[in-house]
What does this fold into?
Amino acid sequence: MARISPLMIAPPLIFAAFVALAAVGMFRPDPEGLPSTLIGQQAPALPAEPLTTFPAALPDALTRGDVTLVNFWASWCPPCRAEHPTLLDLHADGIPIIGVNFKDTAGAASRYLTDDGNPFAGVAFDPQGRTAIDWGVTAPPETFIIDGEGKVLFRFAGPLVGSDYEQRFLPALKAALAD
It folds into this structure.
């Protein structure tokens, strides 16, 4: 009787494992969303260092009783630039937004806000990206909805533009404002 080499069985088994992982990923409840361990938890601290001459993000900025957005951004990030008009509109509508500039230079970030407008009630500066790690930020831009007591209600990865913004972010923001 001929013996089958384990090396002949390994490729089909590896392929089957990849297919199983893909199937699990495709059939999870929200395949577009990235889960966050912060939902329902107190928001991590914001960086204490402000961005040059812009208003600082004060330590109590997330616990003043108002729903607040925390937006992680960088001047070198094209999707951040794409969402900037939306942030300006939200600011004009009276939504407080704390901006956390990370992995950037103070000069480039300041020029960006000076040239394009500042939608932020306070701007924190995180040049090394340490705070972004605490918040679980994977890449800019990311926006968090925080309730008036500092609890994270929602995380939105990506720019605040298009149908994803309209279908996922805006309903979450409206729900938070209604509570």
